[in-house]
Amino acid sequence: MSFTSAHGTALGRLRGVRYVSTRDSSGAPGRPFCDILLEGLAPDGGLYLPESYPEVNAETLERWRHVLRTDGYAALAHEVTSLFIDDIPQADLRAICERAYAPAKFLDPAVAPVSQLSDGLWLLHLSNGPSAAFKDMAMQLLGELFEYELERRDTSITILGATSGDTGSAAEYALMGKPRVSVFMLSPQGRMTPFQQAQMFSIDDPSITNIAVAGVFDDCQDIVKEINADADFKRRHRIGAVNSINWARLMAQVVYYFAAWLQISNDGRPVSFAVPSGNFGNIAAGHVAKSMGLPIHRLILATNENNVLDEFFTTGVYRIRESAETHATSSPSMDISKASNFERFVADLVERDGDRVAELFGVRLREEGSFDLSELRSFRDQLATHGFVTGASTHADRLHQIRRTYEEDGVLIDPHTADAVQVARSMQVCGTVVALETALPVKFGETITEALGIDVPRPAVFDGIEALPRYVVELGNDAEAVKEIIEAAPAGAASK
Ligand SMILES: *Cc1c(COP(=O)(O)O)cnc(C)c1O
Q1: Using alpha carbons only, what angle is made at residue 400 by residues 115 and 341, rounded to the nearest 5 degrees?
Q2: pTM for this model (two decimals)
Q3: Protein residue whose Cα sits closest to atom 14 of ligand 1
Q4: Which residue, judged by its Cα, is nearest atom 7 of ligand 1?
Q5: Mean pLDDT per segment of 10 residues, for the chain of length 496 residues?
Q6: Measured from the CB, is residue 330 less than 6 Å from ligand 1?
Q7: Are 299 and 360 within 8 A, CB to CB?
Q8: Known catalytic residue: 290?
């Protein structure tokens, strides 16, 4: 199936875009976009992927270059997402994108601008949204899509999530003021940075409940799992998820790879992207963009000391870590022991053999905590085709890159971006390289101060947020207590 169309018109849409689970080998017909939007995880435990990736040719890319220049990021987002969504009328989808990427919501009206450092490395700025992390790029669109579809189905949803920092605030800024969505967000008491706590807990919205759990992130995650395992409770409260297993988040992220290339590569030449990775969501979107035909030379995967992914790409062995084995680092949003989105890439690696994926993720990983793909027919060829190269950075590397970038260019980068910059600068990939900036330095001020001995200047919108009143419930590590809070909130929290 190919959706290539010189005029980017409805050719592909007429033929339908359908989604299948990574673990499905049945050949049964796939599901339309809006069904999987509200569902999140597939019933068989797999993740949804389009049956095949729509293809984009050089002519379409040239047209999109014009679209981005003249009509802006939201218009490009509409072009790209319309290739993945055939069950929302075009005019509605355009309006959804315009609301999600309204320039006024972003510190820079270009939404995802690029800049170049003096050594030639480019930065793609993805953290100009309301929560100052790149997760806004996907969450803003997800929020609008949810609202649209819940309205259309005249129903509501309860979002129950766990956050170690960035996901929670991005979700809350995207979902606040949406009466059909109520949010219950668990975070580990006292473990987020003061800035992150202030960002989340200062939100005063009747449909948003912050719950600080006495425990670590994994305890929060376990409570979410436990509540989701109560099928009756889950159904009664229509519990949904906004973590990166939701295909819509990945799809939204595909757009900025196109936006970066269109801004940088005037001659059509390929560029490479360096991506600071944890759950593999960001770079998985780069893989999708490359699969669609965007000229990407290398996808440079950067990890911190938690190098599960680097290890896989080097050895072919994927071995998840116990939480005790997970290092607490200065790029905390990448302190991941099990990359929730990785299954999507592996599905492509084994050429969508659903039985194989089910065996790897549903059996091997669960029983043994690891699997080995080094024997996969042409494992190295496959990786080369997909363009992946990887590297890991340390705390000292991040401090060094924060210093170097500041001293050479007067540019402040956050520690996650510094992971990408470190690996990009050490890899010697030829041609143009773009490092993805995933958070503003103000979010992780302590590390910037450690590197440079200065206080991080903060954008005016964040002035004094630590002093605002806090809206947060403190709880023990207790799923029943969380259930009681959800139970007590009137359904359709508008009236709460
Ligand atoms: C979430 C996050 C990452 C990691 O992205 P993944 O999609 O999980 O790989 C990197 N940097 C920041 C600042 C983040 O919030």
Answers
A1: 65
A2: 0.94
A3: 333
A4: 281
A5: 38 69 93 91 91 96 97 98 97 98 96 98 97 96 97 96 90 95 94 90 95 89 89 92 89 98 94 96 97 96 94 90 83 86 93 96 93 78 81 97 98 98 94 97 94 92 91 96 92 43
A6: no
A7: no
A8: no
